[in-house]
Amino acid sequence: ADADPGSLRTPIVAVLGHVDHGKTSLLDKIRGSAVSEGEAGAITQHIGATAVPLDTVSSMAGDLVMADDFDLPGLLFIDTPGHHSFSTLRARGGALADIAVLVVDVNDGFQPQTEEALDILQRTGTPFVVAANKIDTTPGWNPQPDAPVQETYDSQSDRARQMLDENLYEIIGQLSDAGFSADLYWRVQNFQGNIGVVPVSAMTGEGIPDLLAVLMGLSQRYMKTEMEIDLGGPGKGTVLEVKDEKGFGATLDVVLYDGTVTEGDRIVVGGVEGPIVTEVRALLRPRALSEIRTEAEFERLDSVQAASGVKLAAPDLDDAMAGAPVRVVRGRHLEDVIGEVEAELSEIEVDTQEQGVVVKADTLGSLEAMANALREAEIPILRAEVGDVAPRDVAVASTATEAENRVILGFNVDVLSDAERELDRQDVRLFNHDVIYQLVEDYEEFVEERQR
Ligand code: GTP
Ligand code: MG
C-alpha cells in the first residue's frame, strides 16, 4: 500500500573509498554548493552525517532532479574517514547504508580500500554508484564550475576528453574484473544489475548535479518500501563511535535508521561484556557554523527522528562498542529488547579455535570483516574482540606454544602503554594496520619467513 509521503524516512547514503580519493571534499562541495544556491540553512550538519533536503538537492541538480518527481525527504550522507572501515556501518546483519557512493580518484584507479569497500558492498548487497572523482586534474582540462557532466564534457578539447575516457574505461574495467557490470551512468538502463559511473570533480563541482540525480533516482526506484517506517516508533540505530566528551563522559555517535529517540528514553546498547541498559541524558548535535564561536559546541535536542546522526549522552557507556546496535525500549518489555541486542551481537560472534592468533579491531564491523578475511586465508583465531591492545591480550597470546600463534593482529587499534612493555617481555608479535588484506599479507609473510 502507498504510504503517506510524510512518513518516508531519508535514505542513508554512505560515502566511501580509498584514503584521499575525495570523500570529504565531495560532501564539502555539496554543502558549499548549497550555500551558493542560498540554501545553506536547509542543510543540517549531524554527528558524522550531513542531511540534504529534497528541495536543496533539486536546486543543486537543476534540470536533472525535479522535486515533484520524488517523495523522499532528501538524502542523509555519511562520511567514512579512510582509516575508519566502512564495515562499521552495519545494521541488523546487513548494511546500515541504503545506498553508497564509492569514490575513486580517476588518476589513481582502484586501491586497497576501494577493493575492501567493494567486497563489503557486494557482501551486504548495497546498491551503489561510482563517483570517478578529480576529473579536473585531467591534463588540459577546461573547468565548467558546477556544470552537469555532459555539458563540461562537450566543452573539452578532444585530447582532454580522450585522456578522461581512458581513465574512466580503466575504472569500468576494474569494476568488471571485480565482478560488477558497469558503464558510464547515462548508458545504464537498469541500475539494479549495473553500476553507473559518474565523472565528478569535488573541486569544481562538475558532475555533482548528475551524482545527486543518480542517487535520488536510485533511492526512489529501489528503496521506497524500505523507507516506509513508523517514524514515531522506538528508535533503532548503530553506534559509529564511542567518544569521551567534556562534561558528558563517554558518549555515543549514533546513526538512527528507524523510529525516534527522546531524552529520558531507556536504551539498550551493545557492549564489550554484553548489552548495556541505560537512560538517555542528552541528545546532541553540532551547532550551525555561525553559532560555533559564541556558544557551546553542541545544541541539545529533545527528540530525534530517523534518519539522523546524533550524539547520545548517557551513564555507563564506557564499554559500548562501535558498530553495535542501540535500541530504544519505549513501550516494550526490557527483556525483549535485550534479547534483540544479544541476537544482533551473536550474529558477529567469531569462530575460535584452541590454537590461533589474537585479533583486536576498532569496531564490530571491522572485527567481522577481519574474521572473514582470516577464515578465507585459513588463519585460525584463538580470541577476537573489539578494543585497544591491552596487557590481557598479550598475556593470552603469550600462552601459545607456536611462534606463529604468539601474535596479535590489530585492525586500526591503539596499544595501551603497559601492553607495549608486555609485548617485548612476552615475545609476542603485534601487527597493526588499517587495511585488512595488508594485515593478512604481513602475517603470512612473517609465517613464511619463520618456516624458511
Ligand atoms: P580520507 O578522509 O583521509 O580518507 O580522505 P578523503 O577521501 O576524504 O579525501 P579528501 O576529501 O580529504 O581529499 C584529499 C585531497 O584530494 C585533498 O587535498 C583535496 O583537496 C583533494 N581533492 C579532492 N577532490 C578533488 C578534486 O575533485 N579535484 C582535485 N584537484 N583535488 C581534489
Ligand atoms: Mg575524509
UniProtKB/TrEMBL annotation:
Keyword list, A-Z: GTP-binding, Initiation factor, Nucleotide-binding, Protein biosynthesis
Residues reported to bind GTP: 17-24, 79-83, 133-136
Coiled coil regions in record: none
GO terms for MF: GTP binding; GTPase activity; translation initiation factor activity
Highest taxon, organism lineage: Archaea
GO CC term, one of those recorded: cytoplasm
Regions crossing the membrane: none
Keyword Lyase: no
Sequence ranges assigned to domain Tr-type G in this UniProt record: 8-223
Entry annotated with the keyword Nucleotide-binding: yes
Physiological role: Function in general translation initiation by promoting the binding of the formylmethionine-tRNA to ribosomes. Seems to function along with eIF-2.
Membership in a protein family: Belongs to the TRAFAC class translation factor GTPase superfamily. Classic translation factor GTPase family. IF-2 subfamily.
Name of the featured protein: Probable translation initiation factor IF-2
Organism: Halolamina salifodinae
Lineage: Archaea, Methanobacteriati, Methanobacteriota, Stenosarchaea group, Halobacteria
Residues of the full protein shown: 10 to 461 of 604
